[in-house]
Amino acid sequence: MNLIITCPRHLEPETGDEIKDILEELGDSEAGVTITNMSGILTAETRLDPVEVVRKVKERLLDEPWSVRYCKRIIPIQQVIESKIDEIEKSVAGLSSQILEKETYRISIEKRNSDLSSKEMVTRIADKIKNRVSLEFPDRILLIEILGGKTGISVLKRSDILSTEKTRRSMSE
Fold it and tell me: Whole-prediction pTM value?
């Protein structure tokens, strides 16, 4: 999985078709889309750069707001590991080098079907990163998406995550 897609509950099949069509239009006709056992959550595996996919879907949304009906959020994932605090800590240590020296960061954890302690994760990860923290306007978001036994981790800019609602809202301002 290198994309996590959220959608309204009970519209997972339609969302799966929509993301498959989008990925095919972008050049990946063999992308795999999986409807998870969590309501409103799908994952996708594409050969394309997941951050680039989000950028192109955002452009498409700005040109044709009606062209994306079911996908609510599209989140790029850089690394997938087992949902264990030690594994997460190791993975984050490797990816945190993407946060440049002067940049601020924030740790965002989204847990589904997991009882891992967010507080313990934040404490253990923050101890290893020397950059300043900014909860309001970070330069980078260290995103930890826990989906049961699998965890997706990414270091992203805020613009690398697509929220169709926020994008549409920004068009009307």
Answer: 0.93
**Are the C-beta atoms of 106 and 138 separated by less than 8 Å?**
yes
Q: Which token pair is 133?
A: 């923290």
List the pLDDT tens digit at each of the 173 positions of the chain.
999 999 999 999 999 999 999 999 999 999 999 999 999 999 999 999 999 999 999 999 999 989 999 999 999 999 999 999 999 999 999 999 999 999 999 999 999 999 999 999 999 999 989 999 999 999 999 999 999 999 999 999 999 999 999 988 888 77
- Domains annotated for the chain, with CATH where assigned, are 3-78+160-172 (3.30.70), 79-156 (3.30.2130.30)
